[in-house]
């Protein structure tokens, strides 16, 4: 037995010489099994090395799980010594030349530190060259269609004309440049958009005066609706813009839809309901609108009518409110309180009167401010280039159509053809400065003296 296993059994016998023969035999068998296991593990390691997929986890077996942790360093060293022809032929990373022609990164970093220490600013601002501007303009011209190019050329020509001609009006927006709420840098663009939207949001035709229209409605019926809206509007304490938008929504809907007499009040209260959503911050409740009709319209009726009206108007509610233009012209009037109060009354009367249903909001505001300045005798001057600019280029002293509208407004206030009792009662109150009496007396005097033509004399 000792001659067959010289290396393994002799050692085991020496370690177990103090024991009996049974222990020696068992130890010999154990040594033989261990030797067989070592041979299998060595062959497994060589196979993994040849496949170049060696993993330490694959190396650990259940039999030597405990000894693997203690012999980790020994296995690592032995595995490092095992090499294949592929590994032997590899070049070390230190032998590969890196960035031979460039300056090392450390030197560049130190040079930048030297510039910072000496206080030299290494940042150089590149000015735009002519070539870069040409390339950008070429790109823009390629991706711009013909219509946009024509618009750009027209705007450039207009700017040249404006810059070449001397400005005759006073720039009042420059005094408010420090006020961020006035956004003076966008004022011209905002009002250009409002002037463009005016014609798009007017009623398609005058359904009150056109007797042949299928949507014809008597002016007296509209006056009753508008007068009731003025009363409800004051009861709800809404903004003036809400009332004006309400009338615009109602007129635009009636110009393209036939409404029975029993549904006119529902139409009016729904128009106010929509306008309040658009203009107000604190809204009345839906139940308040239903209650104010005294049973003529329920909450369900108002909601159904709202959807039907918005669909008919294509949800196009954004309307250039005449109050925006009145505030714009008041800037040229130095925001005189009395003149502006009379202008508000005249503007509201113009909106409620059926004769001015197709007049643009900017023209209504200019009419109101011009007549208000005549009543308050602010005639020095009555209308100059500054007023012309801030009213949307309305030449009050030379525009015949504008003068006819002003005369018609004065005649209507002096001898009204439609009854607007709630509107008149509203401006008789001290809350509004009882402004109606002064305006009515002046208009009555002008009509009696037949001096309407003198309104437009310098």
UniProtKB/TrEMBL annotation:
Presence of the UniProt keyword Cell cycle in the record: yes
All copies of domain Cyclin C-terminal, residue ranges: 320-441
UniProt cross-references to InterPro entries, sorted A to Z: Cyclin, Cyclin-like_dom, Cyclin-like_sf, Cyclin_A/B-like, Cyclin_C-dom, Cyclin_N, Cyclins_cyclin-box
GO biological process, one term: mitotic cell cycle phase transition
Regions of compositional bias (Basic residues) in chain numbering: 158-167
A Pfam family this chain is assigned to: Cyclin_C
Biased composition (Low complexity): 63-83
Source organism superkingdom: Eukaryota
Keyword entries, A-Z: Cell cycle, Cell division, Cyclin
GO molecular function: cyclin-dependent protein serine/threonine kinase regulator activity
Positions of region (Disordered): 1-172
SUPFAM superfamilies given in the database record: Cyclin-like
Stretches assigned to the Cyclin-like domain: 227-311, 324-411
Polar residues bias spans: 1-10, 17-36, 45-62, 110-121
Cited PANTHER family: CYCLINS
Recorded family membership: Belongs to the cyclin family.
Protein name from the UniProt record: Uncharacterized protein
